[in-house]
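FAQ: What does the model actually see?

It sees only this:
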Amino acid sequence: MNNDIERVLYSEAEIQTRIGEMAKEIEADYQGKRPMVISVLTGAILFTVDLLEKTDLYTTLDFIDVSSYFGAAESSGRVELVRDLKSDVAGKDILICEDIIDSGRTLQYLVDLLKERGAKSIKVATMLDKPAGRDASVTVEADYAGFIVPNEFLVGYGLDYEGYYRNLPYVGVLKPAVYTK
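And it is asked to produce this:
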């Protein structure tokens, strides 16, 4: 897998340091609250676990799975709910954990869905934010972002291509030859 990586953008140490900083920001903002953390499957699992381990707050955790890629290298533009939450969000402070915000359509869909279901407040923590990929119709943004990234195909630390590369401990740029076959 490492041979498929053009270059490493963020090392495991850099990622863990930044997550620790984000955890402190989140602790300060949620002082006296007990947020429900919603991890967006599957990419955000590693980020969510590492963030929660570094955050000294009472939290609950649930998972949601939405997709707009359907196995392709680019978003289809259509967001679909694949797996719903098990918990009721009405009246709760919500922290969405996302691996990357690219077009932003998935995040917009989630925020709109949670508002419709009566969430008291909604904040977003993302490991990676790719503003250059943002769809002009998207109005939501991350409250906490680990790194602002270039408009390149990234894998590792939860990010995948065709289900692979998620287990790399770093974030790297995938060689175009891998996904343009």
